[in-house]
Each structure stands twice: as C-alpha cells, then as structure tokens.
C-alpha cells in the first residue's frame, strides 16, 4: 500500500504487509529517512497519530509507537493539542546516522571481498581509485 498521508503533502508511506519488519518500524524508518533527506522540512506538520492510523488503516497503537521512537531520537516533536512536527535538524544526530550507514556498507564490502578472496590492500587500492575518480569528476 502506497499512501500520500493526509495532513502532509510531502509524507509518503509504503506499508509492505509481506515484509518481515513490523509496521511501526516501517513507518518510523520511512519518516526518519524523509526527514534526513530533507523531503520533510523543519517544523513541517505531520499527521496526528489518529489520522495517520486512519489513513494507513492500522492501529493507533502502531502509529503511536512509531511517533514515540521518532520523538525519542529527536526527529519530531509533539505539542499536546497542537500536533506533531518535524524537529530542527541536529547536525550531530544526522552525522551519527550517516556514520551508521557507512559502517553497514563497509561490513557489506568486507563480506563481498572475502567471497572474492580480496586482500585488505586490494580493497584499499579499489577505494583509492574510486576516490580519485570521484574527486576528478567534481573538479
């Protein structure tokens, strides 16, 4: 199910019922990624917990859990009787999120390199070549 959620023109949520991920985690991850990418802007209103649940045809408890996690991690703030809003971007928080992504990619590289019997030196050489090409393309 792909939904443009009422109450926010920019919020798109895709719920995959066949996914092994819990629905609250799918909502949490997608909203977080849209905030990090800049698709959802600082202080932009989000749908209420109840409206999001209604739009997605899911439980209020599920949406509350997703919003609670987003609030606990500093991605959104909730003002009672006013609504839910995208929090100002915390540069250190964004940096930490990106570092986690880089670490995951490095783990994937290590796994793939082992399956190809590549040495550390060969991986570093590949990395340096790609960095050099990328830097040359930017200038």
Helices, strands, pairings?
Layout lengths: L1 E3 L7 E3 L8 H15 L7 E2 L2 H8 L3 H13 L3 E4 L3 E4 L4 H25 L4 H19 L1
Helix pairs in contact: 1-3, 2-3
Structure description:
The structure is a single chain. The chain has two domains: 2-86, Arc Repressor Mutant, subunit A (Orthogonal Bundle), CATH 1.10.10.10; 91-138. Strand 4 and strand 5 form a beta hairpin. The protein has a three-stranded antiparallel β-sheet. It contains five helices and five strands; from the N terminus they run ββαβααββαα. It has helices at 23-37, 49-56, 60-72, 91-115, 120-138, and strands at 2-4, 12-14, 45-46, 76-79, 83-86. The protein is elongated, with a radius of gyration of 19 Å. With 139 residues, the chain is mainly α.
Biggest sheet: strand arrangement:
3-5-4
Low-confidence stretches: none
The sequence of SSEs as H and E is: EEHEHHEEHH
- How far apart, in Å, are the first and last alpha carbons? 43 Å
Major sheet summary line: 3 strands, antiparallel
**Portion of residues within helices:** 55-70%
Silhouette: elongated
Range of strand content: 5-15%
Q: Please write the CATH class name of the largest domain.
A: Mainly Alpha
Short description, anyone?
The protein has helices spanning 23-37, 49-56, 60-72, 91-115, 120-138, and strands spanning 2-4, 12-14, 45-46, 76-79, 83-86. The protein is mostly helical and 139 residues long. Helix 1 crosses helix 3 and helix 2 packs across helix 3 (60-72).
């Amino acid at each position: 199910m792909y939904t443009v959620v009422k109450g926010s023109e920019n919020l798109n949520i895709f719920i995959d019922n066949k996914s092994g991920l819990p629905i609250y985690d799918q909502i949490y991850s997608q909203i977080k990624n849209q905030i990090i990418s800049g698709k959802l802007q600082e202080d932009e209103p989000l749908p209420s917990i109840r409206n999001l649940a209604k739009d997605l045809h899911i439980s209020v408890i599920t949406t509350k859990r997703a919003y609670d996690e987003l609030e606990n991690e500093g991605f959104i703030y909730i003002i009672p009787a006013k609504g839910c809003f995208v929090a100002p971007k915390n540069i250190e928080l964004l940096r930490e999120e990106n570092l986690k992504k880089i670490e995951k990619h490095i783990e994937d590289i290590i796994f793939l390199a082992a399956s190809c019997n590549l040495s550390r030196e060969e991986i570093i050489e590949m990395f340096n070549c790609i960095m050099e090409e990328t830097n040359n393309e930017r200038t």
